[in-house]
């Protein structure tokens, strides 16, 4: 509409300007080719590495780039150490200049994580003496445990409540992370007294166990205000929700009445 108004206003002068406009369009450089890579929420580094092949990045090169990366400046509290970049590689869809490089992808992931985490309200977590790294660990647990968004704040509440009471978390995903496979751990694996066995050791695992998305990060800072301590998957639920309770007796009774298929 603006071009037609100019034509009416300036008459023949608009025709004189047209070739120049065409010339500018012809000399505009073409957009650089890009490739897109989607990294799902809850992927660990071991899951991301083979996925980068889709955009021509060598998995070994990705692992090397991850090993060279560091958490955002000032993220870790005094005395804290992150032995891995697990948790800091934000899951999202990335548009990478072609040819894509591992270093560029990792840099973008860490920058995206920094921006996402900076937007969180940490006041409640701080009131519970939790550090930023603790929140990240909690978010990674939520990401691996929750399938339905409605459950994320409730699972966060279970974690906060159990930490406050000195209970073990009893989240088998931590053992799955340690053994390197997202499957049901065997009985011997669950009996192994390791730093990641949250059935046996109270507190959070030594590191995050996956790379959480924005919803799990938010849930880790804003748990539901409830006294729940236990949860179990609802058998056959299409939304893959969980049953929550603050009573162990009610928890066991629910499991007996609703056995997993």
Describe this structure in words.
The protein folds into three domains: 1-30, no CATH class; 31-119, Dna Ligase, domain 1 (2-Layer Sandwich); 121-261, no CATH class. A hairpin with an 8-residue loop joins strand 3 (230-233) and strand 4 (242-245). The longest helix is centred in the middle third of the chain and has 17 residues, at 102-118. Helix content is 46%, strand content 7%. With 261 residues, the protein is mainly alpha-helical. Helix 4 packs across helix 5 (102-118). Strands 1-2 form a two-stranded antiparallel ribbon. A two-stranded antiparallel ribbon has the order 3-4. The model is unreliable at 1-19 (pLDDT under 50). The protein is globular, with a radius of gyration of 25 Å.
Give a brief outline of the structure.
This protein is mainly α and 261 residues long. Helices cover 46% and strands 7% of the residues. It contains twelve helices and four strands, in the order ααβααβαααααααββα.
Write the layout of secondary structure elements.
Layout: H1 2-10, H2 13-27, E1 34-38, H3 45-51, H4 59-68, E2 93-97, H5 102-118, H6 123-127, H7 132-145, H8 152-165, H9 173-179, H10 187-191, H11 214-221, E3 230-233, E4 242-245, H12 248-257
Question: Helix-strand pattern, N to C?
Answer: HHEHHEHHHHHHHEEH
Stretches where pLDDT falls below 50 for ≥5 residues? 1-19
Task: State the secondary-structure class.
Answer: mainly alpha
Instruction: Report the span from N to C terminus.
Output: 63 Å
Question: What keywords describe this structure?
Answer:
mainly alpha; Dna Ligase, domain 1; 3 domains; two-stranded antiparallel ribbon; disordered N terminus
